[in-house]
Specification:
The complex is a heterodimer of chains A (207) and B (480).
Chain A lengths: L5 H8 L27 H14 L3 E4 L6 H12 L4 E3 L21 E5 L2 E3 L4 E5 L14 E6 L4 E2 L2 H11 L9 E5 L4 E2 L7 E2 L6 E6 L1
Parallel strand pairs in A: 1-11, 2-3, 3-6, 4-7, 6-11
Antiparallel strand pairs in A: 4-5, 5-8, 9-10
Chain B lengths: L7 H9 L2 H23 L4 H17 L1 H14 L3 E5 L2 H14 L4 E4 L3 H5 L2 H7 L3 E4 L2 H8 L16 H12 L7 H17 L3 E4 L3 E3 L4 E6 L3 H7 L3 E7 L3 E2 L5 H13 L6 E6 L12 E7 L3 H6 L14 H5 L1 H6 L10 H11 L17 H5 L6 H17 L4 H18 L1 H14 L4 E2 L2 E2 L7 H4 L4 E2 L6 H9 L8
Parallel strand pairs in B: 1-10, 2-3, 2-4, 4-7, 5-8, 7-10
Antiparallel strand pairs in B: 5-6, 6-9, 11-12, 12-13
The chains are: A alpha/beta (207), B alpha/beta (480).
């Protein structure tokens, strides 16, 4: 049933040259409100917080980045977690836990966030050797540490930013995850329920 | 594949006779419409986004052959493998083959309409491979051996009582009524499936030709799990899903979530580019991408209906459709329902078995108004209707003959004042047999088809021409 000729068959079918138009690859340069100039960073922060809370996310704002460890400890205590797994981040070096490797049996996953989108309340996490994907996914609680200067106004600005950081996209990471609040479903009579597969709580600590 | 003719009228009659379903449909369509409207009104450049998206899709479909080759090259460059499937059978065979080659026993699936279309589960299971749907709605549908009712919310026709009974039977748990409790049970059951799976299967919302990236949009996190945890990830895409450039994803992602569920953004969007890289602790070791044609390249050829391929499967057209609101998803007889089903199903299947579908619309155009890529549904529907009629032209066709004769008589009568007058009078005279309070009820065949559903307004005893004559004859400058 698997035929070598399928590729040729499909391409042949699609080769209706009479209507071929010039590929307008370069033509479409229209941009959507991603003017990055004159953006008030504190407004972005407020927008992000508002939108993240709107999707049942929780936000903690820190005045000093030195307060981070204290805040994380406080959250771990409040959740009553026995085990924690976290990304290998400079800012978490002094955390008095060892990172649990069995993520399926861990109470909290702590990650950074490479970017955030203000007008949708979205965290953007890039995958990498130091940034596993499952930390933000398997444990029932996800805590993300976000630097406020990485918040961009909207998704168009985000893609423009990604475009800048990846010349030709040759080094594009294997997975970019957009996370907007805790895992949710409305599959049972349209009732919103949280934590169906991913974390039921999504917490952002902004420094 | 469709084996029997889809009888839309019969299916609809069944749905209309189900009051529970009717309530669910009204509730669901009302809420979806309202939340979409709210989300869309927050974007001042909404119309520009729609135009831009349509422009991109127009260009993609016209150059689909070269974009597919570009995408294949990009996926290969990042370490993935591309498979070309001309039809449903071949696509399933490819996936089964990948599973066999790697001794796969357990498969987890995230929601994908393409895999519904090719009936992949059936093929995997008949080859001895355990296959579990992991989207909550799809999981419920799979547990009761049913079909999805809607492309976004597949189990909307099940009440929470149905589901609590189902879970109680299948898992031996008490009958919980609260949706949150039911969700927790499903989480527990499915988490085990994820942890023991050797292969994850997903659909594709968008595939970027330039980078080989696929975008998967969801709310539950099951697609993230299915594409991260197992060693092998197989993604199946209809060949029309291509977006040329990475940056253009921002346009489509903005449109999709708002149109589908009225969210500003879906909870999770994963942009996956090939298998995991060196040094990464998670992610699949193998990444396979299956290009599914299954009739799409034929649609691309047709100038009149090509725009059917611009669809991004958001379901907005379904939620606003006055026909769907009454008859629900199963009446359309295949995996795609509502207006998109009415145009896609006949083009991807035997046109004779699906001939009812282009007529399953009032042509009101609400679908066209909300479509994020501006598909002109009424235009496509009319073109498909024309095809159906042309197909039957050569053959003896009684309804067609009656219709034609009726219109011939109608045009004769209406173009001669004498006969027109006579007809009016005759009707006014004849109607006394059926008249009740200025309405006609229970007319004989073929008019019974009308009066079975609703009453017909009675003909006036005195025609307009006579009233006019009496009132204005010789007055107000109206001459004889």
């Amino acid at each position: 049933m698997i035929s070598k000729g399928s590729k040729a068959f499909i391409l042949q079918n699609l080769n209706f040259t009479s209507i071929k138009e010039e590929k307008s690859r370069k033509g479409r340069e229209k941009t959507f409100s991603n003017s990055e100039f004159s953006i008030d960073q504190s407004k972005l922060e407020d927008d992000f917080i508002e939108n993240f809370k709107m999707v049942s996310g929780e936000v903690h704002l820190l005045a000093e980045k030195e307060d981070l460890i204290e805040k994380i400890n406080e959250l771990i205590h409040e959740i009553g977690a026995q085990s924690v797994s976290f990304w290998n981040m400079e800012s978490l070096k002094s955390l008095e836990f060892t990172s649990e490797s069995d993520l399926a049996n861990t109470d909290i996953g702590i990650t950074g966030a490479d970017f955030a989108i203000a007008d949708t309340g979205t965290l953007v996490l890039l995958s990498g050797p130091k940034q596993p994907r499952l930390t933000s996914l398997l444990p029932p609680v996800h805590i993300a540490i976000l630097k406020k200067e990485t918040i961009v106004p909207n998704i168009h600005a985000l893609f423009a930013r990604l475009g800048k950081s990846y010349e030709n996209y040759d080094k594009l990471c294997s997975c970019i995850s957009f996370i907007t609040g805790p895992s949710r479903t409305a599959d049972i009579e349209l009732n919103l329920t949280l934590g169906v597969h991913g974390p039921g709580r999504a917490i952002v600590v902004i420094i | 594949m469709i084996t029997e003719r889809i009888d839309f009228k019969k299916n609809s009659a069944e749905a209309l006779g189900n009051p529970k379903l009717k309530k669910a449909l009204v509730n669901f369509t009302d809420r979806s419409r309202a939340s979409r409207q709210k989300a869309v009104s927050g974007v001042f450049e909404w119309e520009e986004l729609r135009s831009e998206a349509r422009g991109i899709k127009e260009e993609v479909i016209k150059n689909l052959d070269s974009y597919l080759l570009e995408l294949e090259k990009s996926v290969t460059r990042v370490g993935g493998r591309v498979h070309w499937a001309k039809d449903a059978e071949e696509a399933s065979a490819i996936v089964v083959n990948i599973a066999r080659e790697n001794n796969v026993r357990n498969v987890v699936k995230s929601k994908s309409m393409a895999t519904e279309e090719i009936e992949l589960n059936k093929h995997l299971i008949s080859n001895g491979i355990n296959t579990v749907e992991t989207d909550l709605g799809e999981y419920i549908v799979q547990l009761c051996d049913d079909h999805p009712f809607h492309i976004i919310t597949p189990a909307i026709h099940k009440t929470k009582e149905d589901i609590s009974k189902l879970f109680s039977e299948k898992f031996g748990v008490p009958e919980y009524e609260e949706p949150q409790e039911l969700t927790n049970i499903a989480r527990k059951e499915l988490r085990e499936k994820f942890l023991s799976a050797d292969m994850g299967i997903s659909g594709v919302n968008f595939a970027v030709a330039e980078t080989g990236t696929i975008a998967i949009v969801e709310n539950e996190g099951n697609a993230r799990l299915a594409t991260t945890f197992p060693d092998i990830h197989v993604a199946i895409m209809g060949i029309e899903k291509i977006v040329p450039r990475f940056e253009q994803l921002s346009i489509f992602l903005s449109l999709l979530a708002r149109s589908a569920t009225g969210q500003k953004s879906s909870t999770y969007v994963s942009l996956i580019t090939g298998p995991k890289r060196e040094g990464e602790s998670d992610g699949p070791r193998q990444f396979h991408l299956v290009f599914l044609d299954n009739g799409r390249s034929e649609i691309a050829k047709s100038e009149e209906t090509r725009e059917s391929l611009y669809c991004i499967r958001c379901g907005a057209c379904i939620n606003v459709c006055p026909v769907y609101r009454q008859v629900g998803g199963h009446s359309y007889g295949w995996v795609y329902s509502g207006p998109i089903g009415a145009i896609i199903t006949p083009q991807l299947n035997d046109p004779q078995k699906t001939a009812d579908l282009p007529f399953a619309s009032s042509l009101c155009g609400a679908c066209r108004d909300v479509c994020p890529v501006k598909i002109d549904f009424p235009h496509v529907l009319l073109s498909l209707r024309q095809k159906v009629v042309e197909e039957t032209k050569g053959r003896a066709n009684l309804p067609g003959f009656i219709e034609k004769t009726a219109f011939r008589i109608w045009s004769f009568v209406f173009s001669k004042p004498f006969y027109y007058n006579l007809a009016g009078k005759t009707m006014a005279f004849l109607q006394c047999l059926y008249q009740k309070d200025n309405e006609l009820q229970g007319l004989p065949y073929p008019f019974s088809k009308w009066t079975r559903e609703k009453n017909f307004p009675a003909f006036s005893r005195k025609p307009f021409r006579e009233i006019w004559k009496e009132k204005y004859h010789g007055r107000n400058g109206v001459l004889r």
